Each structure stands twice: as structure tokens, then as C-alpha cells.
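Ligand-bound model needed. FE2/S2 (inorganic) cluster.
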Amino acid sequence: MDDNPEIIMDPEMKGVSRRAFIKGVIAGGVATSSAAYLFRSSSVFGQQPPGLGERLITLNVNGQQRRVDVMKQETLAWTLRYKLGLTGTKLGCDRAECGACTVLLDDVPYYSCSVLTHTVRGKKVLTIEGLANADGTLHPVQQGVIDEQGFQCAFCMSGFIMSAVGFLKTHPNPTRSELAHGLSGNLCRCQDYDKILTAMMRGAENMRKAQNV
Ligand code: FES
Ligand code: FES
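Prediction:
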């Protein structure tokens, strides 16, 4: 057995450090395979098969203009995940309870499972995939997760990060309890709230340092 715990043992990923692997996961929100959700979703959500009643619209997603065919009853979470391939946005409850699907619309956090896609035309949609810089530098809140090793399975992670980023835009210097209140719309099935909050507080600190606040 390798005596260096930092090195991942998967032969497909030789030479990739644990830290580098986690960094990649945080940047893309790729905590869990989306395949199970894709199949589960098609039966649970009752979305129509592609092509029926779709209309071509343009969305501003992560700073890019994206042309996409959407149905009038299609949710933004569905469009992001299954039409645009942005699977960092997770679907947990699909009914505005868990916050796993949180994205920013014009800098304000929203549950994307409860927003109809056609209503966000003209707004700036930001998902977890759009947070890091083009050079790969993580957003300060993402870096806070690395610094504090927050989250267990991390299914809830991208939703928490997006909520924190939105909250910190208007509350850059929160107390721990203020930040907890700001993130109270996000649930964690692993119940790791204390550690998550510590990571988000570190993210807030990183943001202040980055902005010299
Ligand atoms: S999936 Fe949207 S709030 Fe749970
Ligand atoms: S860390 Fe597992 S759901 Fe939050």
C-alpha cells in the first residue's frame, strides 16, 4: 500500500493528488454521477419528450449566450442539467425544499427547480461551473471549502456555495449566526452543518481578502 495518503490509488488517475481531485470536484460541482438522476428525473418530473412544443430561446449562462430549445413548462434546473450539460446544479427534492439546485439570477440565489426557464431570458444565470476564473483559480468561497475540507458526500455542496456567494454579495461580513440564517434554505442530508458553516465562513473571509474589504 502506498504510504502517501495524498495520492489517489485509482490506476486511471495515477499521479493525481487528493487535493487536486477535490479541487476539480468543487470547481464543477461533480459530486455524484448524474446518470441516476437523469433516469429518475424523466419519470418523476413528467417532462415531455424532447421536440414536443419546444421553442428556441437564448439564455445568458455563465457569461455565454446559449441557444436552447425549451418547453413552456420546463424548469431551469432541467434545462441546465439535461439540455446544457451543466450537471453541477443538483436536483434533490425538485420542489423548493432542499436548495441543491440553487443558482444565481442577476446575483440573487434562486431554486432553479422552481423557476421556469423561459422566464429567465434577459437575466444573467450563474451556476457553479461559472464561479472559478478562466485560469482555474477557484472562487474564494470554493477555496474556503478546500481550506476547511467542508462537506461529506458533497451532493449539497454546489447549492450551498451558490447560496453563500449570493448572500455574501449583500452581507460581506456576516457573523456565524447571520451566515447560518442566510444559508437556512439549503439542506444537507449528511447533516454536516457545523463543518459546512465553518467552510462558508472561511469563504467569506477569503472574499473579503480578495476584495480588500
Ligand atoms: S431540488 Fe430545488 S430545492 Fe430541492
Ligand atoms: S454533505 Fe452530503 S448532502 Fe451535504
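Strands lie at 55-61, 64-70, 102-105, 108-111, 124-126.
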